[in-house]
Specification:
Length: 224
Amino acid sequence: MSGIRLIIALLAVLAMSATIAATSASASLPEAELLPGESFPVESTSTIKGTEVAFIESSLGLLIICNELKELLTLETAHLGKFDDHWVGCKDNGVNVNTIGDAAGVMLFKGTEHLVFVLLSPLAVGTVRQLEEATLEIGKAKVKVKGVVVAGLSPLNEETTKYKLNLKCSGKGKQELSSYFNEAGESLTKQLPLINAGLGNENACYAAKEELSMSSNKMLKIKG
């Protein structure tokens, strides 16, 4: 009997160790690693042009379509950074849309971002962007945009100066990625961009019709 009890005790210890290990693994965040001798910040850029290449759509039907999107992402540490998005040729039903103070058809969005896991099995990484509130002018109307944008990021665990940023919708006013895991391994859900056109906040989608091919000025590896 003592032998059986010893085996049971050992199994319990192993199970507890596995739980602690799993918790420790989930309680981490992805990070950007640079080559020896390199230092932050790291800047990455992308530009897409064409007909209707980027758009913002609300759940109640507001649809702003743009013909150019310029991305500037700046990683200031291994985890944290900022972004500047420059949207050009933007219209809603033929009416020019711009952020206050900018030229007709030009929308500027900026804010902070940090690296996160969007899936734990299999591991998938992304960025979480906290949009600074921006006010859009659509004719005489004023529309506010704020909230959180979750974007997919690849590749993982490869040294490169080229990577992909994925901003997609899964439906009308629905961001494809709307959750992520924090440092404690907790899933944070309903992380969405919001539009207020005068009827209260609506869920929205902040998207590009194709993956953004980002080019960075230094070799980096997103480790997970």
